[in-house]
Amino acid sequence: MNAPLWVVLPVIVLVTVATRADVQTRKIPNSLTIPASLLALIAHGVMGGRAGLLGSLAGLGLCLAAMLPGWLLRWMGAGDVKLMMAVGAWLAFPQAVIALLASFVAGGLISAGLALRRGLLGQALRGAALLGAWTLAAPLEPAPPPVTTGIRFPFALAVMAGTIFASWIRM
């Protein structure tokens, strides 16, 4: 099923405001993401009872677990992580999984487009392949992550695209 209107409207407002802030200032304020997460948990608890609250918590936790390594490796900011957590709380499990994966895909497409525009697509693709190999080998032999192109962009753009996609997809 796709997300109900009482979920879609606030989450679209959230990602729109966060994207505007991220594009303009390269920061997503805690004063936006933290209350949004709490409001999502309360709304799901009220509207869906215990099951609604647990689904919302699962969406939040899953998004945190998936985004935290990117922050720890300094590939993204903490605001990106908190925004995705809030989106996960609003969309709840399993819709949050779709938003998360769609956001990663959108981020990859944005990165590839920027790399192509800057003449760095070959280097970016090699770096992505090395990063994948490093990720798979990391438990076996510790080594620093490979060097990337350094292309950065407001990740809230990708989160907005992933959220819009996940808000209307049927499961």
UniProtKB/TrEMBL annotation:
GO process annotations (BP): signal peptide processing
Which superkingdom is the protein from? Answer: Bacteria
Parts of the chain that traverse the membrane: 30-46, 53-72, 92-116, 152-169
Q: Which GO terms describe its cellular component?
A: plasma membrane
Write one Gene Ontology MF term. Answer: aspartic-type endopeptidase activity
Keywords on this record? Membrane, Transmembrane, Transmembrane helix
Q: Matching InterPro entries, A to Z?
A: Prepilin_IV_endopep_pep, Prepilin_peptidase/N-MTase
The record, for Pfam families, names: Peptidase_A24
Q: Ranges for the Prepilin type IV endopeptidase peptidase domain?
A: 12-111
Has the keyword Cell cycle been applied to this entry?
A: no
Family named by the database record = Belongs to the peptidase A24 family.
Protein's recorded name: Peptidase A24
Its source organism is Eiseniibacteriota bacterium
